[in-house]
Specification:
Pectate Lyase C-like; ten-stranded mixed sheet; six-stranded parallel sheet
Amino acid sequence: MFSRLSRQKVLFRAGLKGIFAFTLFFVCCAGVAGALELTVSPTGSNNDQTIINNALEAVHDSGGGKVYLNAGTYKVDNTMIIWSNTILTGFQDAVILVSPSSSQWFTGSVGIISCKEPVKNVEISNFQINGNLGAFPASYANSSGHDKDCMRCIILHGDSGNYADNIIIKGMKLFDSFSDGAYIYYAKNVSVYNNFISNTQHEGVFWSVVLNGEMYNTDFRQVFISLN
């Protein structure tokens, strides 16, 4: 399932001006109670979100840390939930692929990667997300009363009274999704860079109510960018 990576460091970027190192030995720093590193590998099933979510939950329960995706294809038929004080990263040839046997679970605010809280200190980096839109009917792009709001690769957000803070998306390849590559709203201190985003059929990057955001060195192919 997943295993600890001994004596390696986890890096969190706490604000755009500083990087703090945490170790496996539960060093307390910058409000993180403990930093844990876990690695996962594909199982060959259609629900690899389970092993990824188990690792993300374990990191969350420990107070923060890193989940590393080994190389291979992770077929998923539901969302993955990332929590505060977490790095989700992996090999560049680690691919999260929406399983062709999926129902239309990726609607509205449920992305391929989502959150359930106003996330703080989150990094998503260095792997691929393939929405696999060609495997689904065109109607899966839409929910009731809304066009192209389904199958966002990444959704991270806060709310009007509690903004998400210190979000980094870097080195990602996001492609073949009915909606946005990355949708971020009610957030501050957001950094998106060194990504490749292709054939995301709403916006490649969609920011709404984002304060102190930066985006650079990102290659967009057949996509739009919306910054509100």
